[in-house]
Amino acid sequence: MAGLPVPVHGVRVRLRHVAGCGPFADITVDFYPPGAGGEPEFTNVVPDEKLPAEYGPALRNGIEEGLGGVAAAVVVTAGRHHEVDSSEFGFKTAGRMAGRAALVAAGLLPAEEAERLTKVTWPAKPGPKGGQGG
Fold first, then answer.
1. Are 23 and 5 within 8 A, CB to CB?
2. Which residue, 77, 91, 100, 127, has most beta carbons within 10 Å?
3. 131's torsion region: left (phi>0), alpha (psi -120 to 50) or beta?
4. Integer Cα distance of 86 and 127 in angstroms
5. How far apart (Å, rounded) are the C-alpha atoms in residues 91 and 4?
6. Is the Cα torsion angle 75, 62, 14, 53 positive or negative in sign?
């Protein structure tokens, strides 16, 4: 399994419900090259009141899918949920987007891929809006 070659900080995904429906998830994730042994790692430092533990497995699974087999040490540094509109599906989707963004930021996917990540921002995001994203 290949490892993430460089750290990627501050990947933020904001899925917001529109007109009162749809998934809500708001996460910020830091990605690092894997540690000794090259195994993936996942740490969530967000308190349960901000990001309930019930969403952790879906978020982790989504991040792993987004990374597509690239090993990384992942730290979820911030998060928010909505009592009605958050779901495992929403956090899995947000995780997948965060993983894809990490690959773009690390140079493992073409910069053009950033255009598809409209709900994701990171400090050095390429494109017309730079790190402001959508």
1. no
2. 91
3. alpha
4. 29
5. 22
6. negative
pLDDT for res 134: 40
Q: Which of 58, 47, 74 is nearest to 25 (CA)?
A: 58
Of 41, 33, 29, 31, residue with least CA distance to 79: 29
Predicted TM-score (pTM) of this structure: 0.90
Q: How far apart are CA 115 and CA 109, in angstroms?
A: 12
Angle between helices 88-105 and 56-67 (to 10 degrees): 30
pLDDT in tens, 30-54: 999 998 888 999 999 999 999 999 9
